[in-house]
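Customer escalation, tier 2.

The customer says the design service returned an amino acid string that "doesn't look like it belongs to this structure." They asked us to rerun it and document both sides in this ticket. The original structure tokens are below, unchanged.
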């Protein structure tokens, strides 16, 4: 018989492992499943239903409400999808240094307003424990000028 490494082993060759406890348990489990299937196919369930029995429909459990951390993480994920941490740092540095154009400065301020709106939306979702917090409809759209500014950094 071959061992796990593909080498013939006298130890394994001399042993008949077909009746080991795990093999017997597997055989017993298959036998129990076969018997259960025979009962169903033999009319057990059909006879129950024909005799007026009913089977209640499956009702899935209510979803677990999201945690505040999950909702805040979704908010952060959406913000970072527009402007990474690096882009945010570089935009703030450029603004502090006064090198943004008037148009870029307006986009920067619009971005701050958008982030505040995102945080506000997250707060409302946390308060409501809304399980649909991943739906785009819950989150304010980011202005295109903000996206363009972040892409430049």
């Amino acid at each position: 018989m071959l061992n796990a490494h593909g080498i013939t082993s006298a130890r394994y060759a001399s042993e008949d492992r077909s009746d080991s406890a795990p093999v017997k348990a597997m055989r017993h489990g298959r036998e129990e499943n076969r018997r259960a299937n025979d009962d169903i196919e033999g009319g057990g369930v059909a006879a129950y239903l024909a005799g007026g029995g009913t089977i209640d429909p499956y009702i899935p459990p209510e979803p677990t409400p999201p945690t505040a951390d999950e909702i805040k993480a979704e908010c952060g994920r959406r913000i970072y999808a527009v402007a990474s941490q690096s882009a945010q740092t570089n935009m703030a540095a450029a603004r502090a240094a006064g090198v943004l154009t008037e148009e870029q400065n307006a986009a920067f301020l619009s971005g701050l307003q958008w982030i505040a709106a995102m945080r506000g939306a997250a707060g409302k979702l946390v308060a409501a424990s809304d399980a649909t917090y991943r739906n785009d409809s819950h989150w304010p759209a980011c202005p295109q000028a903000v996206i363009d500014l972040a892409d430049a950094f």
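Tier 2 assessment: The sequence is consistent with the input. The CA atoms of residues 39 and 124 lie 54 Å apart. Residues 102-128 form the longest helix (27 residues). Sent an explanation to the customer and offered a walkthrough call.
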